[in-house]
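We read letters as residues; the integers encode the fold. Take this protein.
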Amino acid sequence: MTHWFHRNPLKATAPVSFNFYGVATTPAAAKVCNDLRSSRTRLLELFTDSSCNPEMMKNATDLYFSLLQG
């Protein structure tokens, strides 16, 4: 078993575009997809930000998961 995740903890996180052009046809659905994209990007940026505190991480995580859950 390879342990690639020990060398680079963020290696498994790839950019997700949330582009559902054929499925998300309403403006509200497009807004949710855009919010998901931006909140995921912000959350991934916080992992490498040295000035990030636990409260900032919790808020960003809560926002991202609340959008995923609906």
Summary: The mean pLDDT is 81. Residues 5 and 11 are 7 Å apart (CA to CA). The longest helix spans residues 27-47. The radius of gyration is 15 Å.
